[in-house]
Amino acid sequence: MAIEREIIEAIKRDVDLVPLVKAKGIKLKKNGKSYFGLCPFHDDTNPSLSVNPNKNLWQCFGCGAGGDVIRFVELIDKVTFPEAVSQLIADSSQLIVKGKKPAPAALQPLSVKERKLLGRVVSYYQHTFTQDSRGIKYLNNDRGITDNQSLKDFAVGYVNGTLLEILPEDPDVIKALKRIGILNAKGHEIFYNCVVFPLYSNRGSIVNLYGRNIEDDNGVSHLYLPGSRSGLV
Predict the structure, then answer these.
(1) 5-94 and 112-224: same fold?
(2) Is the domain 5-94 a CATH 3.90.580.10 member?
(3) Angle between helical axes of 81-91 and 5-14 (0-180°, round to 10)
């Protein structure tokens, strides 16, 4: 089935290339208006991969490879053009698009078990907030939020990547966390390196998470779980 040109152009224009490249495990460092890193398409020892966030294009000055977000996914994942487009569409609910908010995904409401699992994850993130000082230092020093009691009252958490270490080896749990949006398709934490704020319904149950990445140059600063963003802090 042919892919509509409007969809292709929207992906090229709106899916932010910098966080996409980082999500593939490539470390980027900002230099001027562009980001630079080691090119994954040849034996690169001197960062020759350039990512231009304004044009949403990438170029390697070593091997000559380059293009847009679709071409990058084609090469890095070794897939066809239609497969790359389909993958980007599927992942778009967890990528911040350039200049706009992603549309809420059409998801079924969480089951009782999934809501309880989300609550346990939030509790663990709150625990790591008290154990790993990076989150509270960011809020205190960078954001000027110094009322630590309020941070505790609002169950603010920090995601340092250790959730994966304490998860049971249960494929059903992993599957549920992926459906909720805590883990991505590859099993990595969506909110890694974020301070997270649970959002509650009027009945007091957690309905979503808001995450703020503590590194402003990371490319993706604001994250939510897929689906509706309704709820109160």
Answers:
(1) no
(2) yes
(3) 60
Single-letter amino acid, residue 220 = V
Residue in this structure with the two tokens 């932010």, named with its chain if needed: 16
Could you tell me the fold of the domain covering 112-224?
DNA primase DNAg catalytic core, N-terminal domain (3.90.980)
In the block, tokens 């995601």 appear at 159
In angstroms, the CA 186 to CA 224 distance is 18
Of 14, 10, 44, which is closest to residue 26 (Cα–Cα)? Answer: 44
Cα distance between residue 123 and residue 156, in whole Å? 9
Q: Using CA atoms, how far apart are residues 61 and 42, in angstroms rounded to an integer?
A: 11
**163 or 12, higher pLDDT:** 163
Q: Would you state the structure tokens that stand for residue 153, as one six-digit string? A: 């009252």
Q: What angle do CA 227, 201, 142 make, to 5 degrees?
A: 75
Contact by Cβ (8 Å): 21, 95? no
Contacts of 25 (CB under 8 A, 6+ apart): none
- Going across the sheet that includes 34-37, the strands are 29-31, 34-37, 49-52, 57-60, 66-67
Residue pLDDT, tens place only, 186-202? 888 999 999 998 887 76
What is this structure's pTM? 0.53
Task: Give the DSSP H or E segment for 70.
Answer: helix 69-77
Residue 2 pLDDT exceeds 90: no
DSSP state letter for 140: I
* Domain range list for the chain: 5-94, 112-224
